[in-house]
Amino acid sequence: VTMTDLYSTRQYDDESITDFVARWRSLINQLTFQLPQTELIELFTWACARHISPTLQVQTFRTFDEAFTMARKLEIQAIEEKKIQLRNKNLAF
Fold first, then answer.
1. Which pLDDT belongs to residue 89?
2. Residue 26 φ/ψ, nearest 5 degrees
3. Which domains are assigned to the chain?
4. pLDDT tens digits for range 41-84
5. In this structure, are residues 75 and 17 in contact, taking their beta carbons and an 8 Å threshold?
6. HEC string of the chain?
7. pTM to 2 decimals?
8. Are 22 and 93 in contact (CB under 8 A)?
């Protein structure tokens, strides 16, 4: 796995954030080096689906877990507002 692979990996519009993070972390774990937390957060916020990414990009997160928690909240809100429909809805909550 290369940085190009990470940069080209994106969340599908109908993919839950939980499924995406599992897929994304699998790639991260295959790297032969460790990325700094700040770079992981930046990559993650850019890789999220279009109903999540813009809001994440304008916020500051200290940890990846903070960014992931906010992404989940945004996803739940989008589902409740019927802006998105996920392939596997039960993974979002």
1. 54
2. -60, -40
3. 3-87 (1.10.1200)
4. 999 999 999 999 999 999 999 999 999 999 999 999 999 888 88
5. yes
6. CCHHHHHHCCCCCCCCHHHHHHHHHHHHHCCCCCCCHHHHHHHHHHHCCCCCHHHHHCCCCCCHHHHHHHHHHHHHHHHHCCCCCCCCHHHCC
7. 0.86
8. no
